Amino acid sequence: LPLRALIDEHCGGMRDGLRVKAVIPGGSSVPPLPASLLDTGLDYESMNAAGTFLGSGGVIVIDDRSCVVDALWNITRFYEHESCGKCTPCREGTYWMSEVFERLESGHGREKDIDLLWDVSDNIMGKSFCALGDAAAMPVMGAIQHFREEFEYHVRHGRCMVNRRNPARLEQRREPPREVAAAMETNT
């Protein structure tokens, strides 16, 4: 079964005429695939050949009105929050990846930030105590590999290609919604 059939036939297709831009086929911890690879089979061998994995099996579809850079920043912030802090590659790496994504999304990105994201991710891969470090690094590396032009657009224009948001929306770090922050407080 190819990804396209899963989306179109088994999940009802895209809403309101939207098109697929990217698919993260195995949950947030695997490299995303561009729409050009929607005919990739949903099996281990095909996913591996395409440079990704089935992972947890949770399929995330990113539509053509969404910003891949913003989506990956949200994923990176999740892993930064989930890092236990025990090992340096994961603790420092996820922090720095979040900082670079914030710079890109706030309109202050530099060309060298794209390579910095790649280098930080590469320095996390295989060097953390648990799989969380790899889970944080792999989607970032895959996004840069397949969607580098979106990262470059952020640098050149100081905003997202899809122009859904105000480019100056991030004067300071985003805070979670009040109910999420309260839940986080009680769980720490």
Automatic annotation (TrEMBL):
Top-rank taxon: Bacteria
SUPFAM superfamilies given in the database record: Nqo1 middle domain-like, Nqo1C-terminal domain-like
SMART domains: NADH_4Fe-4S
Cofactors that this protein relies on: [4Fe-4S] cluster; FMN
The protein's name in its UniProt record: NADH-ubiquinone oxidoreductase 51kDa subunit iron-sulphur binding domain-containing protein
Molecular function as annotated in GO: 4 iron, 4 sulfur cluster binding; FMN binding; NADH dehydrogenase (ubiquinone) activity; NADH dehydrogenase activity
Compositionally biased region (Basic and acidic residues): 168-178
Stretches the record annotates as Disordered: 167-188
Domain NADH-ubiquinone oxidoreductase 51kDa subunit iron-sulphur binding: residue ranges: 69-114
Any Gene Ontology biological process: cellular respiration
UniProt source species: Eiseniibacteriota bacterium
Entry keyword set: Flavoprotein, FMN
